[in-house]
Amino acid sequence: MTPADVLNTLLKSYQRYYNVQAEGIEPPFVAEAVFHSHDEQYFLTKRAKLSESEDHEYVYFATGGDMGLAEVQALVERAWTLGEARVQPHANHRSTNIALVLLVERISEEARRYLRSVRYSRNYRFLLHGWSSFRLIALETTSGALTWNRRGRDLAKLFRNIHL
């Protein structure tokens, strides 16, 4: 399968829960998926609100041929920067996850090591206004090999279930 075929399959899967946009996306990304959740807890009536929280997730998709360390580092930095700029911490903000999905034909071994070591996270006002974390996964379409960082382990389970 080519990276474009895998991208189409993934976007169909993401469309169930995310708002997916494949046009007018910030380069070098080819698609973006956005998820927002707002939760409120009440006690008997809406006037007696116990808690309120918001969760957000921004997923950036990138495709390519052979990728080396420099290209991968640039994509990771760009995704983190774009996602972090969209975070609006406030008292009801719980979390904002930023994810990068790389669909490439081949990835170099040094880039693979780098991807496993990426650990971006940030808290806002000592977690009182939430936190942000960065998940990533890379799929080599020629071999089917997956590479992810520590927080991207859930993405690996999702990719295996989609049967790419």
Structural class designation: alpha/beta
Integer average pLDDT: 92
List how many beta strands DSSP finds: 7
Q: Return Rg in Å.
A: 17 Å
Ends: how far apart? Answer: 9 Å
Sketch the topology as an H/E string, one letter per element: HEEEHEHEEEH
- Percentage beta strand: 35-45%
Q: Low-confidence segments, ≥5 residues, pLDDT <50? A: none
Descriptive account of the structure:
The chain is an alpha/beta fold. The protein has helices at about 5-15, 70-85, 110-115, 155-160; strands at about 20, 30-45, 45-65, 95-105, 120-125, 130-140, 145-150. It has one domain. It is built from 4 helices and 7 strands. Strands 1, 2, 3, 4, 5, 6 and 7 form a 7-stranded mixed β-sheet that branches. Helix 2 (about 70-85) runs parallel beside helix 3 (about 110-115). The model has no long low-confidence stretch (mean pLDDT about 90).
How do the helices and strands line up, and which of them pair or pack?
Elements: H1 3-14, E1 19-21, E2 31-43, E3 45-67, H2 69-85, E4 93-107, H3 109-117, E5 121-123, E6 131-140, E7 146-148, H4 153-162
Parallel strand pairs: 3-4, 4-6
Antiparallel strand pairs: 1-2, 2-3, 5-6, 6-7
Keywords for this entry:
164 residues; alpha/beta; 4 helices; 7 strands; 43% strand
Gist of the model:
The chain is of the alpha/beta class and 164 residues long.
